[in-house]
Amino acid sequence: QVQLVESGGGLVQPGGSLRLSCAASGFAFANYYLAWFRQAPGKEREFVARISRGAGNTNYADSVKGRFTISRDNAKNTVYLQMNSLKPEDTAVYYCARSQIPQTRPEGYDYWGQGTQVTVSS
């Protein structure tokens, strides 16, 4: 059974850092693109970052470029999102998801984690 389980969210002050993890199981992890999305209250779910199967290519939303880093460890079946210089605008539930092809539309991802809350506030 496919599972994606996010962890690492929490409350952090502006300018702080968090590292999110997404542990995957039940499928051939290395065969899929993995992405992070986020959804703030009252907002549409939006693309944050994507990483290729072999971790050779990454893509980021303009709003997080230079601050966030996506990575993956295929031996551990885990994808990470290192978030630095956090802003209040980053407050959202963060989700990891998988896709067989590179894309940024949430509709193109077939399995999702349950999400982890990130709150950036002073």
> How many helices?
0
Residue share in helices? under 10%
Largest sheet: 7 strands, mixed
- How much of the sequence lies in strands comes to over 45%
Order of secondary-structure elements: EEEEEEEEEEE
Number of strands: 11
Structural class: mainly beta
How far apart the termini lie comes to: 40 Å
Q: Say what oligomer this is.
A: single chain
Unreliable residue stretches: none
Backbone shape: globular
Any idea what the radius of gyration is?
13 Å
Mean pLDDT: 97
Name the descriptors.
four-stranded antiparallel beta sheet; 0% helix; mainly beta; 122 residues; seven-stranded mixed beta sheet; globular; 11 strands
Write a structural description.
With 122 residues, the chain is mostly beta strands. The protein has no helices and eleven strands. The protein has strands spanning 3-7, 10-12, 18-25, 33-39, 46-51, 58-60, 68-73, 78-83, 92-99, 111-112, 116-120. The strands form two sheets. Strands 2, 4, 5, 6, 9, 10 and 11 form a seven-stranded mixed sheet that branches. Strands 1-3-8-7 form a four-stranded antiparallel sheet, with no helix packed on it. Strand 4 (33-39) and strand 5 (46-51) form a beta hairpin. It is globular, with a radius of gyration of 13 Å.
Q: What topology emerges from the helices and strands here?
A:
Layout: E1 3-7, E2 10-12, E3 18-25, E4 33-39, E5 46-51, E6 58-60, E7 68-73, E8 78-83, E9 92-99, E10 111-112, E11 116-120
Parallel strand pairs: 2-11
Antiparallel strand pairs: 1-3, 3-8, 4-5, 4-9, 5-6, 7-8, 9-10, 9-11
